Amino acid sequence: MDFIKDDDALILYKRYDNMMNNLYYGLVEHTKFLTPYEKKMVISLANKYKLYYQVFESHTNSERDAVYFSTDPFELEAYIYQDFAAVQIRKVNDKMDHKNVLGALMGLGIERETVGDIVFGDDNIEISVTSEMADYIVFNLDSIGRNRVKPSLKDDVFLEEVKLEYKTSQIIVSSLRLDVVVAGLINLSRSNSKKMIQMERIKVNHQVESNPSVELDTKDTISIHKHGRFIIGNILGRTRKDKIRLEIKEVK
Fold this sequence. Notes:
Blueprint: H1 7-21, E1 28-30, H2 36-48, E2 52-56, E3 66-70, H3 77-83, E4 84-90, H4 98-106, E5 115-120, E6 124-130, H5 131-140, E7 143-144, E8 147-148, E9 152-153, E10 166-173, H6 178-186, H7 190-198, E11 202-204, E12 207-208, E13 221-224, E14 228-238, E15 244-251
Antiparallel strand pairs: 1-3, 2-3, 4-6, 4-9, 5-6, 7-8, 10-15, 11-12, 11-13, 13-14, 14-15
């Protein structure tokens, strides 16, 4: 378990390791909503114990998913409609963003792992939640920021399919080291970039990374505290001084 750097992830690892180790034959168990890093970790545990597993994805581009596992083959749809639900909220205005919605939900005192993805359609906001929290949210969430809201349960457990939007740009960097790329992304000096990383304000592929010298690759996701989330795109070539011209996709 030395490869797990995040304390919360370590607690989660131990929880599901114990659950899988003591799983009764034929019983189907599941996680709550996991980050991509946590999902990968749980799937590695399922493989370790030679279990069957399936992933519940609330929509095509889902980020937070749940993993089901069992000693025997099983049908996923026999379980997801009793374990998960979707809450729907009418959009009041375009200022209601992911941060506002998640903040309002956390303000109800619920655990982050009970809330999955939040998607914004043309008219509605849809939230994937565990079924045990669905009614609580519907009856207790009455405002998001200064906006009054009236949530309701969606008939389906799956969220509306939405196309992710990115703001595409380019940066020029001397290498693909994390501290170098972070400095280029938010216009910092390399020394200040290192400090941010060492203070654990940076996540790489949804895992806290405190090593400034980690080498990045295309498709890696970098989350920077208070600055947003960025995806490393293609390497577009090199400059005359042999620096790397890098495509960046900023998640809107």
